[in-house]
Amino acid sequence: MNLVWKTVAAAFAASLMAGTAGAQDTIKIGVTQPLTGAFAASGNYVAQGAKLAEEEINKQGGVLGKKIQLVIEDNKSNPTEAVATAEKLISKDKVPVLMGAWSSTLTLAVMPKLMEYQVPMLVETSSSGKITTSGNPYIFRISPTSEMEAKAFAPMVKKFNIKKADFLATNNDFGLGASQEFQKMLKEQGVQIGAAETMDPKATDFSAQLAKIKASGADTLFVTTAVEQATLILRQAKEQQVKARIITTGGSVSPDQLIAQAGAAADGSYHLVFFTPWFPDAVKNPDIAKKFVGEWTARKYEAGGLTEGFRGWDGIHTIVAAIKAAGKAEPAAIQKAMWNVKVKGINGDIAFIKQGPAGKESAQNVPSVYVVRIDNGKVVRN
Amino acid sequence: MDQLLQHGLNALMLGGTYALLGIGLTLIFGIMKVVNFTHGELYAFGAYMMYALVMLLGVSFFVALPLAIALGVALGALLELVLLRRLRGADIDTTMLVMIGAWIALQNAEQLAWTGVAKSISTPFPAAPLVIGPVSVAWNRVFVLVVALILIGVTYLLINKTKLGRAMRATFQDRDTAALMGVRIGNIHTATFALGSGLAAAGGALLGPVFVAYPSMGDLAAAKAFAVVILGGLGSIPGATLGGFILALVEELGAGYVSSGYRDAMGFLLIIVILLFRPTGLFARKERVG
Lengths: 382, 290
Known about the structure:
By secondary structure, chain A is an alpha/beta fold.
């Protein structure tokens, strides 16, 4: 739908690039993010975080004596476009490494292209188990899988005294995967599963699902989707007097945005997040977290974007660490070096473990997961 | 039983919404025979105008609502004068392509003007829902239903009982005869398109505060509007109204008792079944189609 504009913009961008970068004095890093469409808000935050990292790295002299240059493409929240952006970045911009693609569905779409061109991709946002278990050795994921999230949440089940749980998940790889993993974890702890509902990723009215959930009488409702739908679910749950405690999973439901847009309906809800900008001291590397929050605030970016934006920062720093270790900006060397990087990130210490079938393992980081609560319009530690 | 009651109430609220989306489109699509791909964008335009007026300019909600609708009417008139006026003799394919172009341009303009981050619009209604026994509903949704029913009633009277309405129907049934009877064809085209656009903007202005405003919000609204119009029969206002309520009820019950994953499919399944038995929709008179 945005094809016309994309073509115009691409032609324009190409003419600009022809002018400025005949140069081999920069190392290009390709970034594919949803800058428009359903996930536009989150994609733009990740891109902002990535650009902050680019600036910081270049201020300190870049890597291998060269500046880094991000080439950011808009995948329009659309899997077909995600593939097109990856192909463009690899074959036209000749980037040796990618970061992307925000969400499991967009990442899964890009993965075959990584195999085809043998270019590694750092996955900054996505949770579906399939991404690291399908035997794609070019995948390096820093965000947690749904299984990891469910495991991290497991000790909380007793604390919350959950007896019966309902699920409302967006109908895609992300939502269905999380719903499955959390159900599995809860069943192991003897929790009864009530209604397990899904919704179209574009839907805005959830009245039918919520009426069913209300009737199930569960004490807890797990919601897995992006922040836009989560906002509407919180509001509509309040309208229908759904009494269950609402817990969102996936780390992409920005509590600040919920407070701004759902207002009082957000009170009493819990959220699994991977960065807690409200309490920078609670994270593993507070210095880095504070520096990032400072840069973000200085540029007057939305505070609600911090819990997304940090992924861009961590992702680019991890890639640059791998380029440094590789000693050259070539796909195979970066892929090899990435396995051994140890990066102090905002989320915690980033390092990769092996997942998936032997011989063609994907790389998976083991990130920190935090639970926060919204109380009277404020985010509090749980 | 409580669940069934809640589904029924939800369907009533949602049905009013769908009906409102449907009547604007049925005027343009059903009476003018223009496949109006910009319908969803006018809907988004109405929502963003509410956002601009209420949240940015501080205009009172109840003043902003008619203003947003008026701006929608104006944008509709502008689209007709700039784009459709030149295409009056053109075939349906050309018109359709131009309207698709307008749809893309409008949606990208919204993205440019408002960014991709969803905007929330506050309302003067109490946050606590209206509770009736075991079921409950938000006050702003009740307001939407009431205003939607009023707008539907007014539109029905306008088309069927006024001179302007008669001129509209005459123009699109037989343009030459209408012109011979002294109807100003050009003005009628503009007025009809503006009216239909105003109704779409009204839908957005009413529902923007219920949901949130974002650039691609019109796509889903347009899909529902087309479903409602086809279900009810082209050009029929009672058809679009009833079609809206039927679609909402089928979606609610389908999602509640069959599978929520197939919620949107239920509506389209129903349309297929109805079109098998009544190919012109529930209400369209035979002579209008063809």
